[in-house]
Design goal:
Blueprint lengths: L9 E6 L10 H12 L5 E8 L3 H7 L5 E5 L3 H18 L4 E4 L12 E5 L3 H4 L6 H17 L2 E4 L2 H11 L4 E4 L19 H9 L7 E5 L8 H12 L6 E5 L6 H10 L6 E5 L5 H7 L3 E4 L8 H8 L4 E4 L3 H6 L4 E3 L4 H13 L1 H15 L4 H21 L1
Parallel strand pairs: 1-2, 1-4, 2-3, 4-5, 5-6, 6-7, 8-9, 8-11, 9-10, 11-12, 12-13
Helix pairs in contact: 1-15, 7-10, 8-9, 8-13, 11-14
């Protein structure tokens, strides 16, 4: 169906149709994958996008063909994947189809690579809308049976995938990267501090503050952070909590937690922050807290480390794999433990300084170039196997 894999560039159809206009998590991954694949000479990339979204992807991946043919509404988009995607793959003579968000065309005419970000649709269905749980469980089973290869974003996710679905295909681990040109520590000489603080002030954030970055949804366990902050705030009358991120579902619990905290006037909800503001938020934070109950990777934790922020996060998921010894770790959903860790950073300047130094060193090995190298190896492997079959 495709071209010889010995010719320059394996032709990869990358489905980017699930990426929202304000990407987070898996969306950031897909954007960076497209951006970096577009720069390589050993991949002939073709992007499959939503109707009306072509201009964005032509900016992200200049010179790459963009097929803006996928309907926007989720039900229609998922139906399109099962019918029209197979026709498109044939028409563009793809060697590989890559579904970067759990799913693939069931009858893909070329080898399919599927990325699995986490297993929460199986392990914690209560954190997702019921309709999504039913659909993605079924499609993840299909991917486990039919994909030519599966890519997981951490060893934690790969191990859990093997335990739950016993996939037929090989499973590869490709950690996320971080853009070190954007996410970097504060300058030792203080350069850039005024610019950072001015950016933050426009969004109602002024030091000192504890920062959280992420979608406000149940798995991030923001209510536990709010309760821990309320305890710490008694000792620090000027300290604020900055909650940065778009609204997910299940916001009522977060609103209730803020109202109950007796610290509501010191909690700032910034909403989704522009790209240039997020690194400033990390850099100027007294501490970054990421109390997620489960992560397949944990991009905000890695970004915080890269910016030299003292980080407090949780045990029991891929976050331990990502942060190594460069952060304080507490059990998830434990208000007392989280409050103690926040106090430890706030009360001990030497401890905070050690964490600030450890973060960038840990983050240095996580690059999008390394992640994409692994993806390209997988593409070539499955394309070669298909050609030989």
């Amino acid at each position: 169906m495709g071209r010889s894999v010995d010719s320059p560039g394996v032709r990869v159809a990358l489905d980017v149709s699930a990426v929202p206009s304000r990407p987070v998590g898996a969306g950031v991954y897909t954007v960076e994958l497209a951006r970096h694949l577009a720069r390589r000479g050993d991949v002939a990339l073709e992007l499959v996008a939503r109707v009306g979204d072509g201009a964005r992807w032509r900016t992200i991946a200049p010179g790459v063909p963009v097929h803006a043919a996928v309907p926007g509404p989720r039900p229609a988009r998922l139906a399109w994947e099962q019918v029209e995607a197979t026709r498109l793959a044939r028409r563009i003579r793809a060697d590989v189809w890559h579904g970067p968000h759990y799913t693939m065309p069931v009858r893909a005419p070329v080898p399919a690579v599927v990325t699995i970000h986490d297993m929460t649709f199986f392990d914690h269905p209560e954190w997702h809308e019921r309709a999504k749980v039913l659909y993605f469980r079924q499609m993840m089973r299909v991917s486990a049976r039919r994909a030519a290869a599966l890519v997981c974003v951490s060893r934690h996710t790969a191990n859990r995938l093997r335990e739950v679905l016993a996939p037929a295909a090989d499973v590869f681990v490709a950690h996320h990267g971080v853009d070190h040109t954007r996410f970097h520590p504060a300058s030792p000489d203080g350069a850039g501090a005024d610019e950072d603080l001015a950016l933050l002030a426009r969004h109602g954030v002024t030091p000192p503050y504890v920062a959280f970055v992420g979608t406000l949804e149940p798995r991030k366990d923001v209510p536990t952070l709010v309760a821990a902050f309320a305890r710490v705030a008694r000792s620090y009358p000027d300290l604020r909590l900055a909650l940065a991120g778009g609204d997910g579902w299940g916001l009522a619990e977060i609103r209730d937690a803020i109202e109950r905290s007796r610290a509501a006037t010191r909690i700032v909800r910034t909403g989704y922050l522009p790209d240039d503001v997020v690194p400033a938020l990390y850099r100027r934070a007294a501490v970054v807290a990421y109390p997620s109950r489960e992560e397949g990777f944990g991009v905000p934790a890695l970004e915080a480390l890269a910016c030299g922020a003292p980080l407090v996060t949780t045990t029991g998921s891929a976050l331990e794999e990502v942060v190594g010894g460069a952060a304080l770790l507490v059990p998830p959903h434990d208000v007392e433990a989280l409050a103690r860790a926040l106090h430890e950073v706030l009360d001990d300047p030497a401890r905070a300084a050690a964490l600030r130094a450890a973060g960038p060193e840990r983050a240095r090995s996580f690059t999008w170039e390394a992640s994409v190298d692994t993806h390209v190896d997988v593409y070539r492997r499955v394309a070669r196997a298909d050609r030989a079959a």
